[in-house]
Specification:
The complex is a heterodimer.
Chain A (H helix, E strand, L loop, with lengths): L1 H23 L4 H32 L6 H17 L4 H23 L8 H22 L15 E4 L2 E4 H23 L1 H11 L1 H6 L4 H26 L4 H5 L2 H10 L5 H17 L13 H14 L11
Antiparallel strand pairs in A: 1-2
Helix pairs in contact in A: 2-6, 2-7, 2-9, 2-11, 2-12, 3-4, 3-5, 3-9, 4-9, 6-7, 7-9, 11-12, 11-13, 12-13
Chain B lengths: L9 H15 L1 H4 L2 H27 L6 H18 L4 H25 L2 H22 L28 H24 L1 H11 L1 H6 L4 H27 L9 H14 L4 H20 L5 H17 L3 H10 L23 E10 L2 E11 L3 E5 L6 H9 L8 E4 L2 E2 L5 H7 L1 E3 L12 H6 L9 H15 L14 H13 L5 E5 L7 H18 L2 E5 L3 H7 L2 E6 L2 E7 H6 L1 H8 L5
Classes of the chains: A mainly alpha, B alpha/beta.
């Protein structure tokens, strides 16, 4: 069994190095480095979105497609407050608080009514919520080119001779530290233990007296805060458009799938790899146009790789 | 012969009347803007019917439907601009090519289901979105992608429907045919197979159903109607835009199909109406179309939480006054003499990782009814799963009537004559008792009237003849057990295995079930293996019994002798030896 594990890592490394050298063949190192760094930033966003979903999915069994919409609502509010001249850090806080409130609203009001349904129905229901949030946000802020920028965009640091904006650095570091933080939270605290118990078997956990409502509310809260932060960074780094940010959940799901909706470290690695490959595809003339497809192709291959040799004879919970 | 095949249900009649109304009235009273809106509503109705059918019949969520429409539309435009073929030929080609794409989508469905399947189809939709927005749709340009930046070339319409009005009528006819195609499948063998697969793939396989084939088939039909829908949309507009086929639209059409009611034709119509007509109306009234998202979202949440059958289910529930048809009686066919056979299990070993679940088990069952007992975790069900073909073993064999069962695939064993029940009865709720049993025979080659007679005979043996027309969901747990037994009796069974058939039954019901099992050999000639914890039942009906403990055979022989064995008493009753 253990050998298998190492084999997977070796295959992963070989494939990544192969793809990077294939795409970057004959290009100056500086250019490759540039795309690599911007890929890491985009990948961190995918990973952040995926991490938010996986934390929630493990604890509550809900795959929340409304995370993107919550982030979109948050960052639009931050933009609006910024236009009104509110002190910038307050607007960022407002973004995260709004996303948190949206997430908790669903988690407390709607999710419990669907607790007994199968995971796919729960996921589809969150789509309904995402549409409501998206509809309201698009109604309030009609389609108009806007930009949102953080003061950290203008500050850059030099790493190995490459200039990296602090925003990108923050995004990357945040995704790594959130994974590490949640790892310790899950393994060291009582609530973390309870979350792991819920992830393992919800019915048994309920029987042995785990306060499901409390633990779930905390999980909805964590995922709401991550969604708000992701929305803020996405609005800054990619585009400030509610629809685009809402449907960012699709590549986020791709990252989450790489971790089998379970393993946060793999979600992070998956998200980062997707971002890097997508970014480096810009170097290829033929594949440039379809580079956003990279996350989906990668996720599909990973899923099929995970599922090889398994048979569907006996039902699992999903 | 197919008495039920052409029966028109009240809901179906309403659907046909609606289609006729749409065909005759709507095109003649609509202005040109609304003609186009109604035509695209027709196209999306057809596409929605495809996803709704996958969801309602197989419980599979496909979030790629609008992407597949895009494929159909792309092929349609491509063929139109590349060759001088008539619309009809291009149309059929577009449908068939999209069907192939649908079948490719079925590949992950063979290994995944539920949430993961939905996610894979979502990825596929994302992929289609990017390809369409990057390469655009052919508009008469050169090369494979066929795009040019200036005006598009003309698009040929079907010769029956050159005008916009005619094209709307054409769309309505095709959509109606699409619905009839799906309904036809639902009423025949594929419909029964799908109902069983949705209930349990293991049950479907042991009923002799080729799960791979039927899943792929379902995706093919869904892809076919999506392709037709896309081709019609191309025909209506003359050119297509990548923005129409975004992943979010695929998600939306699925969500709306659930809101509308996936089980009904009306649901698909409502879904398309919500998708196309509501935004147009809001637009006409000067309301921001973004608010339609809010309506859709709220509708979806409402439907999922309170109305599992959607709006259509609520409407149909209001209008339902369905008279029950009198069931006609069948004559029981004489019991065919089955082959007399022994079940010879040789050296079966199964390991799950480091755990030895079965350790070199051998036993030769020769009596009509034999038992397998042992404490929890002894490997009883695992042994049954090896015989059924759900768990692979290491180099053992199961010989019966000159055939090594382990050399056959799971569903082939069903055809050979292996039958089994599961710890939980596997009765599809939405099929009638008769159809539940009939599903077992669908994969077999025998004349239809013989199948009917066989089903009637099995139901009579099980004492369920008078309930033959009831739906699975209206049975109590004992009746479900009896139907489960009846399912094992059809199609010349050779070996029948029951896994804890008496679980959850009262002692009186257990007695009746025991008598039924004892009568099986006389009716069908099949050998029966019974796993149960009820030692009274086992010692009453089984002549021979195999005792397992921790994957090892600890005794085998005459039941009374085996039960008296001190080793068995120690393992089973927890008495210390010596």
């Amino acid at each position: 069994m253990r050998n298998f594990k190492y084999l997977n890592w070796v295959i992963y490394l070989v494939v990544m190095v192969g793809i990077i050298s294939f795409l970057g063949w004959g290009k100056p190192t500086k250019i490759i480095g540039l795309f690599f760094v911007s890929g890491l930033a985009v990948g961190s966003l995918y990973a952040l979105g995926g991490i938010g979903m996986v934390v929630l999915y493990r604890a509550t069994g809900v795959l929340n497609f409304a995370n993107g919409a919550a982030g979109a609502a948050g960052v639009m509010l931050a933009w609006q407050l910024g236009q009104w001249g509110v002190w910038a850090p307050l607007t960022w806080l407002a973004c995260i608080l709004l996303a948190l409130a949206i997430s908790l609203t669903y988690g407390r009001l709607v999710a419990p009514r669907l607790a007994w349904r199968e995971p796919v129905v729960k996921a589809v229901a969150t789509l309904g919520f995402a549409l409501i949030v998206l509809g309201i946000v698009s109604f309030l802020w009609i389609d108009d080119p806007r930009t949102f920028s953080l003061p950290t965009d203008k500050v850059g640091v030099y790493i190995l001779g490459l200039r990296v904006t602090v925003t990108r650095l923050i995004t990357f570091l945040a995704s790594v530290s959130i994974v590490v933080g949640i790892y310790f939270y899950l393994s060291r605290t009582v609530v973390g233990l309870q979350m792991r118990a819920l992830a393992n078997d919800r019915d048994l956990s309920a029987l042995i007296g785990i306060p499901i409502l409390k633990v779930e509310t905390i999980a909805w809260g964590i995922s709401g805060v991550i969604a708000g932060f992701t929305g803020l960074m996405f609005g800054d780094l990619i585009r400030l458009e509610p629809t685009v940010i809402t449907f960012m959940v699709i590549p986020s799901v791709a990252a989450a799938v790489c971790g089998r909706l379970d393993n946060l470290a793999l979600v992070l690695i998956g998200g980062l790899s997707m971002g890097v490959i997508e970014s480096l595809l810009t170097l290829s003339q033929t594949l440039k146009g379809v580079r956003p497809i990279a996350p989906f192709v990668i996720a599909a291959i990973v899923l099929i790789w995970y599922q090889r040799g398994t048979r569907l004879t006996f039902g699992t919970k999903d | 012969m197919h008495r039920d095949l052409f029966h028109i249900t009240p809901s179906g009649r309403a659907g046909l009347i609606f289609a006729l109304f749409a065909f005759l009235v709507i095109p003649s009273v609509s202005g040109s803007q609304w003609l186009s809106i109604f035509t695209s509503t027709g196209c999306f109705t057809l596409a929605a019917a495809g996803v709704a059918f996958l969801y309602a019949r197989l419980g599979m969520v496909s979030l790629t439907q609008v992407g597949l429409m895009g494929v159909g539309g792309w092929v349609m435009l491509r063929l139109n601009h590349a060759y001088n073929l008539p619309f009809e030929i291009n149309f059929i080609a577009a449908g068939l090519i999209t069907m192939v794409f649908g079948m490719i989508l079925a590949l992950p469905a063979l290994r995944l289901r539920g949430l993961y399947l939905a996610l894979v189809t979502l990825m596929a939709a994302g992929g289609f979105e990017i390809v369409f927005s990057t390469f655009q749709f052919p508009n008469g340009g050169d090369g494979f992608w066929g795009v040019k930046s200036s005006f598009s070339a003309e698009f040929r319409r079907p010769w029956l429907a050159q005008s916009d009005e005619g094209f709307l009528r054409y769309t309505i006819v095709i959509a109606t045919l699409g619905f009839l195609l799906i309904e036809l499948h639902r009423r025949l063998a594929p419909g029964r197979a799908w109902a069983l697969i949705r209930r349990s793939e293991a049950a479907a396989m042991s009923a002799g159903i080729n799960v791979t084939l039927y899943k792929t088939w379902a995706f093919a039909i869904s892809g076919l109607v999506a392709g037709f829908a896309g081709a019609l949309l191309a025909g209506s507009l003359g050119l297509l835009d990548g923005g129409t086929f975004r992943a979010s639209e695929s998600v939306m059409i699925f969500a709306l199909a659930v809101v509308g009611g996936a089980n009904y034709w009306l649901g698909a119509v409502l879904a398309a109406a919500l998708f196309r007509i509501v935004p147009a109306l809001l637009n006409n009234w000067g309301v921001d179309a973004d608010l339609s998202f809010v309506i859709f979202g709220a509708g979806l949440l409402h439907a999922i939480i309170t109305a599992p059958d959607g709006i259509a289910g609520q409407l149909m529930g209001l209008g339902a006054k369905i008279g029950k048809r009198a069931g006609s009686a069948f004559k029981a066919a004489p019991a065919e003499a089955g082959l007399s056979t022994s079940i010879d299990i040789k050296n079966i070993t199964v390991r799950f990782g480091g755990v030895v679940a079965l350790d070199d088990i051998s036993a030769k069952f020769t009596k009509p009814v034999s038992g397998i007992i042992g404490p929890n975790g002894a490997g009883k069900t695992t042994l049954m799963n090896v015989i059924s073909g759900f768990v692979p073993d290491e180099n053992g064999a199961v010989q019966a009537a000159g055939q090594d069962l382990l050399a056959l695939r799971a569903h082939q064993r069903g055809h050979w004559g292996l039958r089994r029940s599961f710890q939980k009865e596997e009765i599809a709720d939405d099929l009638s008792v008769e159809d539940n049993v009939m599903a077992q025979l669908d994969g077999m080659h025998m004349p239809h009237h013989e199948k009917r007679a066989d089903v009637a005979r099995a139901l009579e043996i099980a004492g369920m003849t008078d309930k033959a027309k009831l739906a699975g969901r209206s049975l109590n747990s004992f009746e479900r057990r009896l139907v489960d037994v009846a399912k094992c009796l059809v199609g010349n069974p050779r070996i029948i295995m029951f896994d804890e058939p008496a679980g959850g039954l009262s002692s009186k019901e257990t007695l009746m079930l025991g008598d039924l099992i004892l009568s099986i050999h006389e009716h069908t000639g099949a050998k029966t293996l019974v796993i149960d914890h009820d030692v009274d039942l086992i010692s009453r009906i089984c002549e021979e019994t195999l005792v397992l403990d921790f994957g090892e055979r600890i005794a085998f022989g005459k039941t009374a002798k085996v039960l008296a064995d001190p080793k068995v008493r120690a393992a089973y009753l927890g008495v210390e030896e010596g």
